[in-house]
Amino acid sequence: MDNVVKHLKAPVPVLFLLTLCSFTALLSTTNSAAQKQFSFTEKQRFDGWFNNLAHPQWGSIDSHMTRKTPASYSDGVYMMAGENRPSPRKLSSLFMKGSDGLSSLKNRTAILAFFGQVVSSEIVMGSESGCPIEVHPIEIEKCDEMYDHECEGGKSIPFHRAGYDRNTGQSPNTPRQQINRVTSWIDGSFIYSTSEAWINAMRSFKNGTLLSEPSNGFPVRNTMRVPLFNNPVPNILRTLSPERLFLLGDPRSNQNPALLSFGILLFKWHNVLADRVQQDHPDWSDEEVFQKARRFVIATLQNIIAYEYIPAFLGTELPEYTGYKLDVHPGISHVFQSSAFRFGHTMIPPGIYRRDGKCNYRKTAMGNPALRLCAYWWDSSDVMSDSSVEEFMLGMASQLAEREDAVLCSDVRDKLFGPNEFSRRDLGALNIMRGRDNGLADYNTIRTYFELPRVEKFEDINEELFRRHPDLAEKLEKAYGSVDNVDLYIGGMLESKDGPGELFTAIIVDQFVRIREADRFWFENDKNDMFTDEELEWVRSVTLWDVIVNSTDIEPDMIQREVFFWNEGDPCPQPGQIEPSTLEPCSYLKGFDYFEGNELAYIYVCIFLGVVPLICAGAGYGVVKLQNKRKRHLRMKQEEMKSGNKSNGITVEKMSVREWLHANHRRLVKVRFGPQEEMHTVDRKGEKLRSVNFAKCDTITVEESQVDGSKKKTSIGFD
């Protein structure tokens, strides 16, 4: 059992020892009958189907998002909401721009800020564009300091509307319904994906483990080219090979170093549990070990999200669990996905600290104190190979998140990744636009649907905030005109005091309560017979701290137990709140030059495109000429056969002549004699022009004439 408690080194907290030992004990005490029963236990599907047996499609991949309020599209069907509202970029500049380097009011850590992205990826993927792509530009004001510093004007941020069910958006009775491309359940889809084929590519099929590098336990690289997201890297303006990415279950896992660290951590957590299950059940097959380990991973993830992360994020706990409810819909709501859960973006810092267990903070190769977030969008694999999960986890555990307010740090508000033709975008503007894309109603209307009183004037949104910033009400009045016209995202963000305000809190609580109560496989549902009482007790005891210290080389005393907060006396205080001025500069907005590096190819293509029409025209002309020649030859053969000249022994003579139509025009024709006493003139195509019968003519006269020194002219006369 040494490997089970490899982290137990003196001094060790008693609770930690009991947690690990109890898990091992509960596995080892499982009798053979229980082992046999496990083989027949229902296995949760990866795609989310058949969780609810009465409504099999609820919570599955590509299911509709849920509307908690009626759709408010401009035309009532599909056109973007808020046509009369200002540009999202202008609103972002007015209300979401501020100073970076302000720490969390509640001492929340960067672990909480970035773990929120894990939670989001676990239950929703609703912003990916549909096919064909619908582009709706976000207007940029002239001389925008980030996107139009040369004051050219006429620029816009590309915004891609989300994919939707094609059977909707055709009439007011069926307004556009966006779809969720992952399951709505907390079922480990961030780790295992939503596809059987995908997870099979990740599995080793040995002892229930996932395929990993033998040297460090990291996932293997994506040499099988599983369809992971591989966005262009903003710093170099090109798409790199997908084979450099780590093969994980969520296609977005390689977006930034922090998210990738959590992806690798939970990947290793599965293998840790699979090893422990295998040790205690050596007679189990690979599939049995894998499914049992997966069940423990999902259960611990559910426990961490519902009872550790949500209270730390909201400052309030979820209501007590009262059991599985068949009639509760788990669908991700539009207001949750498009606005409320995006509150976490305000806590994202512009950089990420890395440290070791002795509080030595690691600098970058350029001597900067932390990794700049905007320098590593979609380019995290190399830095992860150079660093370790331990360094990132320890660094984020000591690092304080950004302040909980309406302000986004510049690395996400100005320098978020974008497509090649527009390499930097504004996350605040995209969030506002996403709400309009999903047809969300205004802030006040949505408050009433969540049984909150309407605000009568702008100051009622957050009286404390408006006292500190008296000009804020005037800005809102000028931008929106009325308190009943405010975008949900702007109103909800302005409510914040030290975390999500009352509306966003209500939306988030509603969502996670529905996910929990609607899930037949929820770990606390004692009707599904998934866990014994001892196993359930162990699952409830596991925190994110347990996952970190058991899946990495981090010792228990190197990191605080409440990893979502850093309090006085916790290990290794941060050197200071990160400010962009201390980090490496990020490349500014660039447009991709499709011509650069392709000059010769461009010339060859132009030549090819110019020559192809000529070749086609020449080939066509040649084909026509050949067809005409064949037609003439065929007609001549047919006429010869009709005349029976071969059988009668009569020959046909012909010659080419020029026929004078008048003094200035002549044409080339052929004259044929016979086979009867006739003369025929035919054109170049072999079509007969006229015939002259000689039967009644006694004399044929051929004359040549020449007038005023001109060329001789031949005429034929008949008597």
Automatic annotation (TrEMBL):
GO terms for biological process: response to oxidative stress. One of its GO terms (molecular function) is metal ion binding. The chain crosses the membrane at residues 601-624. Heme b binds at residue 345. InterPro entries: DUOX_peroxidase (IPR034821), Haem_peroxidase_animal (IPR019791), Haem_peroxidase_sf (IPR010255), Haem_peroxidase_sf_animal (IPR037120). Residues 1-29 form the signal peptide. It comes from the Eukaryota. Keywords: Heme, Iron, Membrane, Metal-binding, Oxidoreductase, Peroxidase, Signal, Transmembrane, Transmembrane helix. This is Dual oxidase. The gene is Duox.
